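In the laboratory, one determines a bound structure by crystallizing the protein with its ligand and collecting diffraction data. In a computational setting the workflow is compressed into a single prediction: the sequence and the ligand go in, and a structural description comes out. We illustrate the idea with pyridoxal-5'-phosphate.
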Amino acid sequence: NNLLAPWTKKLLPSPTAELEAKVARMQQEGSKVYRFGLGQPDFPTPAHAKQAAIDAIHNNFTGYTDTAGILSLRQAVVSSLQEQCGVQYEPDEIVVSIGGKHSLFNAINTLLQQDDEVLLPTPYWVSFPEQIKFAGGIPRFVETDASTGYKVTPEMLEQAISPASKLLILNQPNNPSGAVYTREELDGIAQFCIRHNLWVISDEVYSCFVFQEEGFTSIASLPGMKERTIIINAVSKSYSMTGWRIGYSASPAPVAAAMLKLQSHTTSNPASIAQVAALAALQGPQNGIQEMRETYLARREVLVAGVRQLRGLKCLMPDGAFYVWVDASEWLGKTLCGQTIDSMDKLAEVLLTEGNIAIMPGTGFGSGKHVRLSYAISMAEIEEGLIQMGKLLGYKQ
Ligand code: PLP
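The predicted complex, in structure-token form:
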């Protein structure tokens, strides 16, 4: 064991991948599983994106490309960011990588020095702390709760900051809580970042799925923020292209150049075929996004209403993404199917083994009191799954 690098002891395996493997095994054995654990859209990739990839193969577009991604794709990203966020970038400020996760890895490893602190609002997406630790940084968790809609405020950030703080990671719409910040809330956070000269990584991979009336605001669009922000986005969720592995960053040119250096010695360009598919997705008809948003909206209503009827569960109405963040702390110490619920992992395990219901325990997202339910599954699966949950958990009196 001592023969391995020290980071191997510091990093935890991805809990989402473990759950998905367990569910896949149960399905292979012929069991019906209600897959509330899933973190990927249940829609097919748009037909024009698939066709573009097939054409790319036939046209022998199969060699190395520009390490940062083909210029036409970076230009399409520039247009998309202009439209979605109202921020104007140049193509040399865009680096296309192997999924949003890879873009985050490049950004975090480019910004952090040993022992730099990173302000990380809790709940957080599972890979953030591990990527920070891998880069030699220290996550400073900033706890949130339902009272602020699981959002951080400048006051909370002021409490957590230290002279070693270098970076704030803001993910909104948030995975797992679904929280979306208003422009006014972001204004306060932006001023905090400017005051303390912080970098911001703004993970916007769910930006297409916002249900609050005022829509989505990127912190990069606020005065003084573009020069200190690295936007991370991907085609994964917006275009239902998780397996194609195309994500991108938008940042000041020196940051982009440094990330590119890292990428040039690690992965080189993302798959040429996948780049062409992503280009078609970004440039083609966008009505698929609207359809997905409406479908998610209808499912959200049903899932939230259903969860609120179940014994021992509470949740807010999430404003974005496709998750419901459920406070299940009332179950702690209680007995379910003859087993003591001493943690959210135990609750998830009992629901899976006794009811074939897959959910994500909040543990990997930084909470011992919550579970995450995804509604990237069909309405029928949501409805049947809720009935199944009701049989195990019971209903509120
Ligand atoms: N950021 C957040 C908040 C996510 O939830 C995910 C995927 O689940 C990613 C980044 C990574 O996306 P990709 O599949 O493009 O690597």
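The longest strand covers residues 165-171. Keep in mind that any predicted model is a hypothesis to be tested, not a measurement.
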